Amino acid sequence: MSQASARDGVPAMTGATALPPLVADGECELLRQRTADVAAGRAVLLHVGGPVEADGQIGREAVREQLRTLTQMQVILTYVTGLPVVKVGLIAGAYHHQAAALNLVRALTAGLGPDLGEIPWGSAGAQVDARHRDQMSRIARGLAFLKGYGLTRLSRGGEVFAGHDCPGCAGCATAGHLLWLDAGLTDPDRLDALVRAPNALAIRLGVEVEPDRILRLIDWLDPCREPGRLTFVAGMASDLLPPLVEKVRATGAEVCWVGDPGPFEPGARLRAFVEALRSVGAHPGGAHVTVSGPRGAALDLVLDLADALKVGARTPPS
Q1: For residue 18, is it within any domain?
Q2: Which of 139, 226, 255, 290 has the most CB atoms around its CB within 10 Å?
Q3: Is 230 in contact with 39 (CB distance < 8 Å)?
Q4: Which domain does 190 fall in, by range?
Q5: Cβ contact 236:67 at 8 Å
Q6: Does residue 211 lie within any of the structural domains?
Q7: What domain count does the chain have?
């Protein structure tokens, strides 16, 4: 593996032969269709990351547990908001780890969707904060009702897309469906490689982001204004969002807005994110959540998001 490829975690080149792609163009196109629904307010995007590696290996049980948590978060969001959830997992980095993780995800999600009756909802409910336990009890009762009719399998359970941290080089497009990059990326060759990539793109927005820089990225990476091509992951203060959202809207770009609450008071920050987007008539598209430790913390966060999305929600466009 070349030094650059090893550092960036992208497929290496052996002579003139690249390692096999990990995702297909058709899968990337399907994700772009789903993110277009998010941008239009017809769906919610849930991007989940967390450790699944131990002793240099991708663990089957760790991947399975993350998928269970992701499924529970999906059910909570859909139950409360009435919207479908687009699931993206950021679970590995370097090529061989990404390949192992994707193989496990595909094996664990093949065939019928997961049986919700096999997920321990009772124990998960006991882990969440007291303020959310009534909601978890209502969801458990709803699932018990569906189980009585044999309706506990998700129809789209196998749709779990892979996120991949991408420095902008061409090989990244083969390693994940949703490519993550920083708003500070300025190298024209790397930006041109991303323009040619079939993937949806997620751009991190930190506190230091300049609106003019974001507008230039839109013109470069989304010249045709394709709905859902770009996702902005906002880690900034909520009061900075409304003017930025309005400037982006003025370009004609239909983007996904996703909140990144960070480790401190994440529930309150997600609620502030939702309120900031709604204050200018935009759709808060979802959240980026890091799952580590007990499952209850992740479920608390998604319950906060679900409650915030439910309040003042408008009827989704047809």
Answers
A1: no
A2: 255
A3: no
A4: 24-310
A5: no
A6: yes
A7: 1
